[in-house]
Each structure stands twice: as structure tokens, then as C-alpha cells.
Amino acid sequence: MEKNVHNLVDLADLSKAELNGLLDTAIAYQKGAAVPKLKRDVAVANLFFENSTRTVTSFQMAEHRLGLSRFDVNINGSSVQKGESLADTVKTVQAIGMDLAVIRHSETGWYQNLESDPNIRLSLVNAGDGAGVHPSQTLLDLMTIKKEFGDFAGLKIGIVGDLSHSRVAKSDAKIFKELGMQVFFAGPEEWWSEELAEYGQYEAIDDLLEQVDVLMCLRVQLERLEESGRDNFTADAYHEAYGLTKDRAKRLKGSAIIMHPAPVNRGVEIDSDLVDGAQSRIFDQMANGVYARMAILTRVLQKQGLMEEK
């Protein structure tokens, strides 16, 4: 299937040069670079079929700063509740006059059928697809790491937690490896995914601590677990076995940073005090997310010919 160049659904579709260009744009925006002019009024529909705080509000802020006309579709009050398909919902907002649709959906790869549909001409931006990928989260994570260390080559990254259900783990690991980082994974063995083996090796969390430059803790996604898994889960046991406790944090290098895609379950994936601690970059990630999403939308708008080139 030929990819539409004016969509952005997976960072793996981009070359290294394009990816670095996105990062440069995001960092430039954060430093105060002027926003290119729109060639006309541009309308964007935000379609979030899964709950979100950080992603939806930072896309909204990014759209505001770029001067877009924003329409937030109330999914719970939409025709989806009457059985309308995602494709028909997208065609509906397109017919009404939307130029872009930012979509988060529980279906992994929701965009695949839409990209191959010749009747869908608006731009698609993936705000997260099931257990698939999360392009804007990966970009803001890269931005956070680049601002901290200046480069990616040779950095060691530990990704810890609910690996099998995490779109962040899959999305980040592939791009991290491509950019020259060494990736390690840790967490419950039953949540290890062999899909990740090509990107890094699985180890016990206590074997990672002294060597990593970045420790990224993942949210335990109870909503994606089978009922038996939810019934057997206890927060205290998980924190003791796999969480970043204060004792574990003492073993990190002084230059190491702590990241988390959030929302954070304090006292489960990471000790509450560490979330706000000196090595934490969790809220920096959130701040960086606005500029990362501005960069993504800028690329899409310029590919569609709706925004002037810088």
C-alpha cells in the first residue's frame, strides 16, 4: 500500500533526515521560532475514541498556536454510538470541511484501511492506535532525550513495565535503536513481548540500573489485561518487584534521567517522590509534547500545501 505523504501515522515511515527535521522544528518552536503562515483557514477535527489528558490537550494547544480552527468531536455523543464506522466518521468530518483529523483509537493499525481508501483525502494524524504505535509520544521522548544529552548515539535506555500492552514501548524502541541507542527491557516475564526482541534485550530491572542513561517506566495498563490478570494484580507487589523505588533510584548514575509517558500511577511504577525529583523529566516530557505536536502538524500541513514553507 502506498503511503500518503500528507499523513503522519508512524515515525517509522520517515527517513532519519526527516525525523531529525521534525526534532529540529520542535526544538526551534520551543525556542520561539515563528510559526509559518497558513495559506487559508484550516480546520482540524480531534477524534479521541480513548481517554486522554496529555495527548488531547497538547494537540489542542499545538493547533491553537498554529492558528488552526479546532473542532473537538464528542465521541460519546457522536454517531459512533449508533454504529457508524471510523471510516464513515472520517468521511463525514471531511465532507463538512475538515482538512485534518487527529485520531486516537483502540484498534491497532486503525489507519491502514483509511490510508488505502481513495475517498479519504484529508490528512490523518495518529494520536495512538491500540497497542500499536504512538508517534507524537515518541517524538516528544526523543526531544526530551536530545535536549538532555545533545545526541543519541551510544545512549543506553531501559524501558520497564507493561511491555506487551504498551504502544509507547513498541513505538519508542524501534526508533531509539534506529538512531543508535542501546535498548534494554525489564518487567514481568508474562508481559514480555517477543516483538521487542529485535530492538533490545530483556533483563531484570536490578541489572539495568547502574548502566542506563534513561530509565523509562511504563504505566500498568489494567484496562488491557484479562480479568484474571486484573484480579491477581496488586500495586504493592508490583512496585516492590518491578517499580522504581527510592532504593533502586539510588543506584542510577547521577547523570541519568527518569521518564514516564504518563499518566503515572504513583507508588506503582515509580515512587511518588521520584516523580517530582531532580532526575525526573516527566513533566518536561509533557511540556515538550506541545512543540513535538506542533512540529508534526506543521509537516502535515506543509505536505498538504496548506502552510508556507519555512
UniProtKB/TrEMBL annotation:
Catalyzed chemical reaction(s): carbamoyl phosphate + L-aspartate = N-carbamoyl-L-aspartate + phosphate + H(+)
Pathway given in the UniProt record: Pyrimidine metabolism; UMP biosynthesis via de novo pathway; (S)-dihydroorotate from bicarbonate: step 2/3
E.C. designation(s): 2.1.3.2
Annotated InterPro entries: Asp/Orn_carbamoyltranf_P-bd, Asp/Orn_carbamoylTrfase, Asp/Orn_carbamoylTrfase_sf, Asp_carbamoyltransf, Asp_carbamoyltransf_Asp/Orn-bd
GO biological process: 'de novo' pyrimidine nucleobase biosynthetic process; 'de novo' UMP biosynthetic process; amino acid metabolic process
Molecular functions (GO terms): amino acid binding; aspartate carbamoyltransferase activity
Keyword Transferase: yes
Binding site for carbamoyl phosphate: R54, T55, R104, H134, Q137, A262, P263
GO cellular component: cytosol
Source domain of life: Bacteria
Record carries keyword Transferase: yes
Keyword entries, A-Z: Pyrimidine biosynthesis, Transferase
Annotated positions binding L-aspartate: K82, R167, R219
Domain Aspartate/ornithine carbamoyltransferase Asp/Orn-binding: 154-298
Residue ranges constituting the Aspartate/ornithine carbamoyltransferase carbamoyl-P binding domain according to the UniProt record: 7-146
Signal peptide annotation: none
Recorded family membership: Belongs to the aspartate/ornithine carbamoyltransferase superfamily. ATCase family.
Subunit-level organization: Heterododecamer (2C3:3R2) of six catalytic PyrB chains organized as two trimers (C3), and six regulatory PyrI chains organized as three dimers (R2).
Function: Catalyzes the condensation of carbamoyl phosphate and aspartate to form carbamoyl aspartate and inorganic phosphate, the committed step in the de novo pyrimidine nucleotide biosynthesis pathway.
Protein name as annotated: Aspartate carbamoyltransferase
Organism of origin: Fructobacillus durionis
